[in-house]
Amino acid sequence: MTTAPVVELTCDQLADQLRALGLGPTTGVLLVHAGLRELGPVAGGSAAVLAALRSVLGPGGTLVAYTATPENSATSRLHRQATAGLSAAERTAYLAAMPPFDPAASPCSTTVGRLSEELRRTPGARRSAHPQTSFAALGPLAGQLLADHPYHCHLGERSPLGALYRAGARVLLLGAPLTSCTAFHLAEYRVPEPPQKRYGAVVGGRGWVRFDGVDLDDAHFPAMLADILPGLGVRTAPVGGTTALLLPLRPAVDAATAWLRGRQGPSRGVWPNH
């Protein structure tokens, strides 16, 4: 039995499929989460995918990607996995050797995908200054969207997510699951007394810094999405080897906020499945 050869998409073909999904010059601001393995082969790789998106949005559009560095942390899941089983001396040495975050040079985590790194490295891209949850953007609104990102506000109102909400952005899931949509974390800041956590990160020119912030958790995303998905106005279309999803960010965050508020425990700050 023979298998059909895998056909590479060209940049122009990918752009046409993205237009069929509903993207175009009137989209304005777009947050993209991509899984290029699921998308399938594209001639030119991640650079061609980025070029297709920019072509579809046009010169007036602004493309945003999550360029997080959760490895640069003393508390993240990735950090705990990397340091599991280390002795006290080994852990001290590991922490001392961690490279400090530099928004101009630090590569984003492999967990957020090759497209995010491609965008970050593109000449003219801007990046927010958060040492754990940065975003990068290309386009006329890049500076405005990324200007404010204090340490205590990973993914809240004063992060690029808050700016994307106010800008009426859309979200594209291109080979990435809806559970990976970072925008839903903004809802966790919009409930009374969200749970807090002490964070730490190593920053260029400052060394280790400690700060408090909302205890972010995506464990509730599957249950939440099962309830709110029908009302999100999600558009779907085949793009490459996957089904791409396009949704408006603001209604999605509003629905997630209402869902979380309706399920907070009596002690507050308690999500289901936490």
From TrEMBL:
Is Transferase one of the keywords?
yes
Q: Does the keyword Transferase apply?
A: yes
Q: Quick one: a GO biological-process term for this protein?
A: response to antibiotic
One Pfam short name: Antibiotic_NAT
Q: Which domain of life is it from?
A: Bacteria
Q: Which residues are listed as membrane-spanning? A: none
Q: Which family does it belong to?
A: Belongs to the antibiotic N-acetyltransferase family.
- Protein name as it appears in the record: AAC(3) family N-acetyltransferase
Q: Which species is this UniProt entry from?
A: Streptomyces tateyamensis
